[in-house]
Amino acid sequence: MTATNVDHFLTNMRKKAKNEGTKLGKRILYTTTFINGRSHRKVLEKMDALSLIKQVNTFLEVEKPEKIKIDLFTDSGEYVDMNVCDVIDNTPQVNQPIPFKGFGEAEINQIVDQRLTERQRLIEHEELKEEVKELTSENEELQNRIEELENKNEELETELESKKEIKYYAGMLGDILESFGIKKETIKKPIAELMGISEKKETPVKQLPAKTTDNSGIVEETPAAPEATKTPEDEERTIIINLIADYLKSTPNNVLAKIFYIFSDIEANNAVADELIEYLKNRKDSSNDNV
């Protein structure tokens, strides 16, 4: 066994001593015995295993034993392990050619394969980077498009709710005015224009052909107009309703909403009209007194 093997043997024994000491939680000691034939001589006894390599090599520089025996113990005397190492190698030395230290074919192939693999990985990495870049760009465009559609949807919903609200109040205002005797057909278009609601164009009424002169001597009576049967009170009511309708056509939307609010209270309780008239009369009298 060569000196290299002796160094390896001593290193292993020191490592084993360290491991056993850690496992047992105790300090490990060693004893070294040099063997020559039948002669056994202890050169180091119960020494700290941490200094095993240095101390044994010091003795080996002076003496050349055939074998080295090392025993390991705990500091309390417990036996741990033992091993023997041959120092002199009796194998006849044969002049052998110095092995080639360069790369063989297998090593070269391995290096080439490794380089090719690394290059392929680099190419794949660059392709993935480009793909991630493209996907990120597409994602940003989709996010912008989604945000644009959401904003547009919110605008449409707001507009729809506004139109629903306007139509609702317009319908209620029509019902209130109808309760005053104004027909919905008469006020539908003006209210729609005031509220900003587009109405469908009415289908034009088909005109009847003009009457021709009848010389037969038969006179057709023209039916009396419905207004002919109205009483003076009905005519006065119609005039008032028309005045209110004309006023509402030229009234701003904000004022129209307030009038609608007043009409709603009167519709719920007719006595509110009397209260308002009384309030306005007192206010007028108060103004006259101040003058």
Describe this protein's structure.
This protein has 291 residues and is an alpha+beta fold. Among the domains are: 84 residues; 95 residues, no CATH class. Helices cover 59% and strands 12% of the residues. The chain is built from 7 helices and 4 strands, in the order αββαββααααα. Strands 2-1-3-4 form a 4-stranded antiparallel β-sheet, with helices on one face. Helix 1 packs antiparallel against helix 2 and helix 3 crosses helix 4. It is rod-shaped, with a radius of gyration of 59 Å. About 5% of the residues have low confidence.
What's the gist of this structure?
The protein has 291 residues and is α+β, with helices and mostly antiparallel strands.
List keywords for this structure.
291 residues, alpha+beta
List the helices and strands and how they pair.
Blueprint: H1 3-24, E1 28-36, E2 39-48, H2 52-60, E3 67-74, E4 79-86, H3 105-179, H4 184-195, H5 232-249, H6 253-268, H7 271-290
Q: What oligomeric state do these chains adopt? A: single chain
* Order of strands across the main sheet: 2-1-3-4
Q: Provide a count of the helices.
A: 7
- Could you tell me how far the N terminus lies from the C terminus, measured between alpha carbons in angstroms? 138 Å
Total number of beta strands: 4
Beta content: 5-15%
What value does the average pLDDT take? 77
Low-confidence stretches: 208-222
CA-based gyration radius: 59 Å
Structural class: alpha+beta
Shape: rod-shaped
Major sheet: size, sense and barrel closure?
Answer: 4 strands, antiparallel
Order of helices and strands: HEEHEEHHHHH
Helix percentage = 55-70%
